[in-house]
Amino acid sequence: MPSLTLDKTDLRILSELQLNGRLTNVELAERVALSPSPCLRRLKQLEESGVIRQYVALLDPAKIGLGLQAYVRVVLEKRGNTHVQSFIDAVQRWPEVINCFAMTGEMDYLLQVYFEDLEHFSRFVMDELLQQQGVEDVKSSFVLKEIKRTTSLPLSQLRSL
């Protein structure tokens, strides 16, 4: 898919939508100083090109009973790559895992996970993660306090035309 060149107006549209994805086209057009028709055209182009992947509702984990957040570092056995796809497939099935990253350095994967409590975490590690073939080492860190959380990408760092 060809790369889309973003201008200042596109970046303003994206910035506004990162703050509030439920804006109507009229509201969005007003905020970025466009008339509704060109704004809608640009928005559709951003969606069709994949720059805008999806629209979501962001939930407060603690308010829905997921008060324990952890980051889990996973190391797989180094003998061949036979376990990599199996691990990736397992990660896709585990609802507790909200993000999984293949990493450089001392770990192979970093999982961001949410649980109701420590007992739920323990069951996940003992019954799922450590039972996964090829998992050699697991280290966990629990979030004590959230200092910053955002879903907004740093658009102000981009050089626009």
Automatic annotation (TrEMBL):
GO terms for biological process: regulation of DNA-templated transcription; response to amino acid. This is AsnC family transcriptional regulator. Keywords: DNA-binding, Transcription, Transcription regulation. GO terms for cellular component: cytosol. CDD domains: HTH_ARSR. It comes from Aquitalea magnusonii. PROSITE patterns: HTH_ASNC_1 (PS00519), HTH_ASNC_2 (PS50956). Residues 6-67 form the HTH asnC-type domain. GO terms for molecular function: sequence-specific DNA binding. It comes from the Bacteria.
